[in-house]
Amino acid sequence: MPGVPTISLHDFDARRDEIIQQLMDAATNVGFFALSNHSIPLSDVQSAFSLSREFFALEDETKAKTPLNGKNAGWEKNTQVRPSTGTADQKESMQLQFSRMEGLWPSDEDVPGFRSRAEKFMGQIQALLDHKYTFPTNHTPSQPPRGLKDRPSAAPLFFCLSVKVMECFAEGLGLPLDTFTTGTVSPPGFADSQSTFRLLHYHSTENKIFGPNFWRAGAHADFDVLTMLFQRDGEGGLEVCPGRKVVGDFGMGTEWFPVEARMDQIVCNIGDQLMRWSDDRLKSTYHRVRLPEGSESRGPRYSIAFFNQARTDVVIQGPQKKYPPVTGGEFIAQALARNRMQSAEVAQAAAKLDADRVASEVHFVPTHLQAVTA
Ligand SMILES: O=C(O)CCC(=O)C(=O)O
Ligand SMILES: [Fe+2]
């Protein structure tokens, strides 16, 4: 696929140095890459999509029993307005987290086994750290890099996929190996994780006519450390715009590359938190999901995203101290405030220009990454 390299994780331990090099190249130049031969079996990805389809097939009134809360979990439909468009994304989504989910799990009567099925898959992407794996929440980037062999033996870590990849980035940047992993993964008993698992359902566009500025997901960059996205074969539409530094607001007017939709690969992108944590070396990149065009299927599109987020109290600061320190909680709060202001301005301006272009139900609801007060 042009623009977005595919990186194979086969023989991970033996090829670790080569993989780190490839990840660093992709993250530095494109901000996006697809992982093949990763550790998550295809049958488990298929099961996760079955879970998603079972949930979204419920009546809206049933899904509304677990509405999007102020803490970034729950269900929303047609409410996410991107600052880049001023219109609502043509989708519904269900967001889940590792903690603070009281009253937000769909019941077994509505979707049998929803919680255990979701948590099993979430754990395959990002598991909880073993309780012995205790690191200070405030990392000191001046610490010398620690290699794999130096991991304290009393600190075993479940080798889930996101930990593997984030350790590679830490090592590639010359930071302590656990910088982004203990920075994002909570030990048991801690409710400070902000990582978010998001099931997405983009509506069928059969017999629908849209104005010029409607998108399945308007152009945006993610706020997190690392996003991992699962797609179904042939359900395309995701596009990326590499080169954030050289493009104008929201990456408009420059070249967009399609990303192939393959269920056997995981599309990953660097988010704003990792860009800042790396003093801008790794690039958070604009992306969007367009509506079907021409002879393409007008059917629905399902995708699943996992956002690896900095924990609320972890300090994000790069080794060169290019930016002042900020905690994971503050970072999200600031990003949301900016988003909210821009969304409101853009929606207002668009409404003045052409009222029909702004869906009547549009109102701002916090995006998938929301400030969390522990
Ligand atoms: O569904 C997709 O392909 C992308 C979703 C996305 O970019 C997001 O939710 O941040
Ligand atoms: Fe995104």
TrEMBL record:
Residues 192-310 form the Fe2OG dioxygenase domain. Residues 77-90 have a biased composition (Polar residues). GO terms for molecular function: metal ion binding; oxidoreductase activity. It comes from the Eukaryota. InterPro entries: DIOX_N, IPNS-like_FE2OG_OXY, IPNS-like_sf, Iron_ascorbate_oxido_reductase, Oxoglu/Fe-dep_dioxygenase_dom. The keyword Cytoplasm does not apply. Belongs to the iron/ascorbate-dependent oxidoreductase family. Keywords: Iron, Metal-binding, Oxidoreductase. Pfam families: 2OG-FeII_Oxy, DIOX_N. Residues 67-90 are annotated as: Disordered. This is Fe2OG dioxygenase domain-containing protein. It comes from Saitozyma podzolica.
